[in-house]
């Protein structure tokens, strides 16, 4: 039933049994990092439940499967908080639909990136989760479940999704038709996310950004002028871009520290850039690299908490270049960088 899903063996085994045993809960929350298969599994499960021909599986060919794949199956409702928040009107519309008898055995409601529910919408949804008006399966997916109201979370059976292993990502990329040197490299850099790996393998922003992160680190470690420093801060981009880009910076600094502390190539994510790692790791001591890593992590947390992006980027670059103290006082210019 869920053979096409890469990894997540525990979740797959659970649903295989639950479907065969007819003991599905009525609401699930799939939580875990982005790009590890939450939405794919939710859709595969939902399709297996609507398919008319294959028992506890989907055939992809019957009318129900075709409607499902075209997004027009009458029992399927999808709310998606990825692009913009899910408002109360959308939840009301969903609730209206649930009043009617489903076409098949049950209504299927996928609430993707459920942290995008507004407080009002989440509150309205809560009532339906508590007392569904008829046969319905809710699957909420979220990479940030801590942003969901605890009352909503507590109504769902929580299914954890784990970062994928490199082997799983490699096989996922190959299934998607990627070939060549890019596959192992993307699998290494993707931090357990097949979605990210696919972006990298397709030549997205990622590889450029690894390059840039490596060069930035070199400048920060060997000394950088103020004008260049502020230019680098601007290059980190807007909030969403900066979150991705600082991840590359983080991975790079982690490698510098790992190499410095262990000298073991097998631990490095950027093992193919060993020479550059080796040179840069000599430019700082262990505690300084550890502080830089903490600074990047701290900046990423602030970005998620909606701080001013420009200030966060400049503060980060100043600290990484050793031009600002951790308390936010900038030695070089006397500016406050908090
Ligand atoms: Zn079918």
From TrEMBL:
This is DNA polymerase III, delta prime subunit. Its EC number is 2.7.7.7. It comes from Desulforudis audaxviator (strain MP104C). It comes from the Bacteria. GO terms for biological process: DNA-templated DNA replication. The keyword Hydrolase does not apply. Keywords: Nucleotidyltransferase, Transferase. SUPFAM superfamilies: P-loop containing nucleoside triphosphate hydrolases. It is an enzyme of class 2 (transferase). One of its GO terms (molecular function) is DNA-directed DNA polymerase activity.
């Amino acid at each position: 039933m869920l053979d096409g899903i890469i990894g997540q063996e525990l979740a797959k085994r659970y649903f295989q049994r639950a479907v065969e045993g007819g003991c599905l809960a009525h609401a699930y929350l799939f939580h875990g990092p982005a790009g590890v298969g939450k939405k794919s599994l939710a859709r595969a499960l939902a399709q297996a439940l609507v398919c008319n021909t294959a028992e506890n599986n989907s055939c992809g060919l019957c009318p129900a499967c075709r409607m499902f794949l075209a997004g027009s199956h009458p029992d399927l409702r999808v709310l998606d908080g990825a692009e913009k928040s899910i408002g109360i009107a959308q939840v009301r519309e969903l609730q209206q639909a649930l009043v009617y008898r489903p076409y098949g055995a049950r209504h299927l409601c996928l609430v993707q990136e459920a942290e995008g529910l507004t407080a009002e919408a989440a509150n309205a949804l809560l009532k339906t989760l508590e007392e569904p008006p008829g046969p319905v399966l809710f699957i909420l997916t979220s990479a940030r479940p801590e942003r969901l109201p605890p009352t909503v979370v507590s109504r769902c059976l929580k299914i954890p999704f784990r970062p994928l292993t490199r082997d799983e990502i490699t096989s996922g990329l190959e299934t998607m038709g990627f070939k060549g040197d890019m596959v192992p490299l993307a699998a290494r850099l993707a931090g357990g996310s097949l979605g990210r790996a696919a972006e990298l393998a397709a030549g997205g922003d990622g590889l450029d950004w690894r390059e840039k992160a490596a060069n930035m680190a070199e400048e920060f470690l060997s000394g950088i002028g103020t004008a260049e420093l502020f230019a680098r801060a601007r290059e980190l981009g807007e909030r969403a871009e900066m979150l991705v880009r600082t991840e590359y910076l983080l991975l790079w600094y982690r490698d510098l520290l790992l190499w410095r502390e262990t000298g073991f190539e097998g631990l490095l994510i950027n093992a193919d850039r060993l020479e550059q790692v080796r040179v840069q790791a000599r430019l700082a001591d262990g505690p300084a690299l550890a502080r830089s890593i903490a600074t990047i992590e701290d900046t990423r947390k602030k970005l998620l908490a909606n701080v001013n992006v420009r200030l966060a980027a400049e503060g980060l670059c100043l600290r990484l270049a050793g031009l600002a103290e951790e308390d936010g006082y900038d030695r070089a210019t006397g500016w406050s960088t908090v």
